[in-house]
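User: Sequence in, structure out. Go.
Assistant: Echoing your sequence, followed by the structure tokens.
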Amino acid sequence: MFNTSKVIMLIGVFASIISLFLYHNFQRDIFHNFFYIGVGIVIAGLIHNLVTYIKSKGHKK
């Protein structure tokens, strides 16, 4: 079973790392945007984790 939020976070991490490598070689503006998209994906994944955690605690009561 895959945890979707972990997969989303991994994609975000890879996107930000790849963009950081490319950032030094190519047009900075484009890959700077990709880096922020990657960070945004990671933050979204963390929020998703938090929401699912709160929901699961709520159901157990």
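User: And one key feature?
Assistant: Residues 6-47 form one domain.
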